[in-house]
Structures
1.
Amino acid sequence: MEKELDFIAERIEKYIEDTKKITATPGKGVTRLPFTLESKRCVHYLEKQMSQMGLDVIEDASGAVIGILKGKSPERIMIGSHYDSVEHGGGYLSSKAFLGKWTTNDLKDYVDKNGISYYDAMILYGYSPEHLIRAERPRKGWKGYLEIHVEQGPIMEDQGTEIGIVETIVAIERYYITIIGKADHAGTQPMDTRSDAVMAAVDVITKLRQYVMEHKGMVGTVGEIHVYPNQINIVPEKITFSIDVRSADLQLLTDPSVSTTMIASNEAQFYSVSNYQAINLVDKGTDVCLLAPTVNAGNTQVVVAGADSGIVNAKDMEGKRMGYTDGAGVIVAVQNMCDDLGVDFDSIELVNLQASDMLASLESGDIDCFAAWEPWGIRAEEAGAKVLFTGTQSYFPENEGEVDYLDFMVAINANREFVEENPDTAEAYVRAIMKATD
């Protein structure tokens, strides 16, 4: 048994060493982008190795290489990984194709730093983007899934542990932040009159570190920074940097109550919140100062129904269980929809849930529909649910089109005491927002 395991280990090491050589950057790590010459070479290598093992080999419409070992049972076990190596993280093309989650427009929207979309890259590679739907697999008949992966951190190695089982896949939120200051001469501009974009970014990045350190298991990274004009003798006018935050607790990344807590404790001097969130803050004793309105975001508030909920028309919502988050402005849209289409609002059973629990409750049948912020609606729609209406658009067959169910105004606000003590900073902040958003 030990000799057999040694043979398997040697063979795996050989495969790894062989594929490491298939790179666009020899001697500088592995760079094997999807739909490139290196990707095609790797596909040919994998197909050859699988065939030699006696597997039936196919390459699907997404570029996934599939080796099939037929057994006696109709149930299937999937073992998988990826053969691409992407500079700034993968696009999960094959994974989403497997689930049937790509559309032609999606492929055109995802563009790399050279302006090449997935759609264009697939055509250049010899694939038909319109055929990607063929890569979708049926949901039934799968007994399990296994992926063997090297640990990408130091914990198991430090503990001397050889094998670990993944318990959680963390959620990821990524942003690009741009801070605009004012370019001045590095030698003659006094420190107390500078609008230095980099110094402002330092404060933000420090706050990010403090926040993630306060929450166990959460990590935050600023891995990309661009400074303008990037000259040694000029005070930076602008800085753009990335933020990558990960946590197994999705609520820490997406729940508005987290930012509300930071605002109420004066950890955030400036913030962008809706009129409903501002009312809640005032109600809890926070002295909110409105600096500038920005946009009506009524279209970002959605009501979504489960695929098996039986909700087609507005009246079908009567007697149904609807999830919502306490303080969510979208409930106003629900009330206005009910008034508009003659639905008995009181007959709808409201179930107060955390936003991060909405989708699971919908899929389990604990609720029939939910009212929430747009990202949760998109995730539900990807899982097979349907959008009934938003604050500005109805999809009910009896009233399809533009509606006026919710004015959800988002504004730039600040801590009033901070504004009174730092009026010039507040004014500069508003000017920067106006410049950045036209």
2.
Amino acid sequence: MAAIDRLTEGFILLDTDLRVVHANIAVKSILPRLAEDLVDGADFCDWFRQAIDAKEFTGDRVGDFLCWLQRHDNASALELAVATKGGRTIRFRGDATGTRDIMVTLTCLTPTCKGSSAVSNARAQAVPTDLLRFAETMTIARTEVGEALRRVEQTNLALAREVAERRALERELRRLADTDDLTGAINRRRFFEILRTPETMPDSEDRGHALLMIDVDHFKAINDAYGHQAGDEALAALVYLCRRTLPRIYPLARLGGEEFAALLTNISADAVLEWAEQLRCNVVDHPFRCGDRHFRLTVSIGGVVFKECPDDPLLLLSRADQALYRAKRDGRNCVFIAEDRAAPQTATASLPEA
């Protein structure tokens, strides 16, 4: 651009949309009243049309230049003289480059114009070829840069998709690693991770936390009588009942076989007993089925209410397990809740006939 700016003729490079890519310094001296609007990105046709409407440009063929700009082809060129309101005569020459860009050359034919001389005018005839070659080079470079930017953008989009897919895969792998695939409950490993995380059990002055152990009564008899598929479907249905009864914010895990555990946080001992008893009743009332065969289930629930989780979650699990065995000794289909410094609370009910 510096080489163009040193020339005494005015040169305006337009892109394929007829917008200004660059106008050299000489344009300002040739058209001092109009050049300020020829900024990069300006619509050249609008600029030229406004100049005609304002009588800044006059002449018999002044409108032909606009028509040529809009209909030119690669091999065409147009040259015409335009009179300006300031009393100057300006020769406009338009040349189409091989890349469909336009080079507009402005030469002042009025002797009073700065730089207007025989040498200058002669040079104006010889310069356009070099400038057209330069314009073509610039256009090719601009096209290559644009293509490079598009490739970078496409690469960034591909990387963004890959990152999103990888994160989705990581979430799915994490879910599979944390979840029991039969019931959808979290697995034993994930449940122990939660028990080891203090943030899951915030301190509370008037409330504590509870660990419930839930075990299906006589589950082996269900498998023997109806088959293992019926047993699997019964376990999945039990998890559904647990989630329908207990708030979903409480973690529910399958520890193994027909044994499940739930962690209830920031809750009173009375509420723990209420939730556990409601769950037991919902299981009793639920019609389990396998195909066209219906059967009933009961569960024994043992739990421990505590203020702080011990460093080893196995100790807490052992205490809840002892409460579960107590519920089974009391006749099954029973809830037994033990507290740190309170008497155990129990609730029992008989199994209605199927």
3.
Amino acid sequence: MSKKHLVARDMIQYIHRGNSNTGRCAMAILSAENLFRKGLAALSEGAAAEAQALFHAAIQAERRRGIRRPQMRYLSFYGLSVALAKGATSEAVRACEVAARSEQANADLFLNLAKVYQMAGKLTRALDACERGLLMDPSHPALGALLAKLDRRQRPPLPFLRRSNALNRWLGKVRSALRAPASKTSALRRNDSFL
């Protein structure tokens, strides 16, 4: 942990202990935006728990100033950092959902929502969040990369049969092999033992 992050953490702990006289002065130094930026830096360094504390402090700083609703990017990144630190909890999902729903023009909020959904195993919702974010910013590189990374299953070849039906599975492998390079067709031959 870097020295500047230790100073920020100590200042946040000092403020949370209830030292209101120095808290106002400290908040002038560490405004909500500064806390948010420090949280982004901690998140980029892989310190999710530290980032979570900084994003939470940014939200609390806004509330102390009398702002009823914090900036949605603070809430979204708080949700992402909670998911990275503790797993995709309902708190993390809810924070990202509220942020994306409230500020629909910000593609980064949809990226955070998609990442949290992916961590929670909700791939369909993650894909939807990626697509909604790309509607806002079609050239967003991280959203495009995440969308390409998420696996989409194709429709079964025979939709009136279950996906797990042997005929559907075999036809799906044939369809995949026809679209794949020649090196992957050998995998199809090895899996045809049930014919």
